[in-house]
Amino acid sequence: MSISVNRSLRWCAALWFVGFTAAVPVGAQSADPLRFVRWPVGDVLSAPRYMLTLRAGLTLGVAAGGILAVSHFDRRFSYEAESFADATPTRMRKVLHEVGNVNIIRPMAVVVYIGALTSSNIHFQDAAFTSLESIVFANLLTNGLKLVIGRARPHENFGPNSIKPFSGRRSFPSGHATTVFAFTTPWFFYYPGIASGALFVLGLGTAVVRMADQYHWFSDVLGGAFIGFGVGYLLSRRHQRLSRMPNLGLSANGISLTWRL
Q1: pLDDT at 260 over 60
Q2: Which of 138, 183, 202, 251 is the most exposed place for a label (fewest CB within 10 A)?
Q3: How do residues 109-142 score in pLDDT, each as one tens digit?
Q4: Are 258 and 246 a contacting pair, CB within 8 Å?
């Protein structure tokens, strides 16, 4: 059954890739391929500057406070998720589980990125790379928090308030929610619209199924969604801004100034 589900996901990814490349116009100007080396380095080096600001501090504070507040309703939301998921076909539940599986989504994002490089659509290349980088960075952050926080999963029967740092417990935040939102968010900001916005439905479905099967509490999936969306949003905005910066270079005719589109 898992092989069949994975094969279905691969076919969906292939059709999705063809649809995106066919639906958007081809970029008229080539871009420096080394941007895919410079961008991650710059993203890491600029992170402290972006995070050590009043706006970032307020955002993180509000998010943390909101997650802490809703954690009091974890049991209730878990029961409601179980009721909702019971009405979902078994095959669909398995698909929603795999949508957030980093061992499937990350290789899929790599394939989409490599496929994008074969096209001349610079915008599509940037979106595919940003989505892949978002998954990697968001998962690193999530795994670090899992290690430090050490929250017990629902099926371990310790309750939602059982937290033991560095205990090996890995409930908060949800890695599946992190992965699916990190993957889909850049596509929305590169191609805003109903079609790309509908991708977030996958994240909601994955969150509900993970709660229903007692892998996560509601606050776990909320925290994972915040991390995935936040990283995807910041990388998308930064890369889109960098792609429009003027590029000063030398040519046979002298110095040229172009805009990276």
Answers
A1: no
A2: 251
A3: 999 999 999 988 999 999 999 999 999 999 999 9
A4: yes
Q: Is 163 exposed, middle or buried (0-12, 13-18, 19+ CB in 10 A)?
A: middle
For residue 213, count other CB atoms closer than 10 A to its CB. 15
* pLDDT tens-digit series, residues 77-89: 888 888 877 777 7
pLDDT at site 232: 97
Nearest to 27, CA basis, from 242, 244, 198, 255: 244
Give CA 82 to chain center in angstroms.
25
Closest-CA residue to 137 (of 178, 99, 91)? 178
Residue with tokens 């001349």: 120
Question: Hey, how many other C-beta atoms are within 10 angstroms of the C-beta on 184?
Answer: 24
Q: How far is CA 155 from CA 159, 204, 245, in A?
A: 9, 21, 50
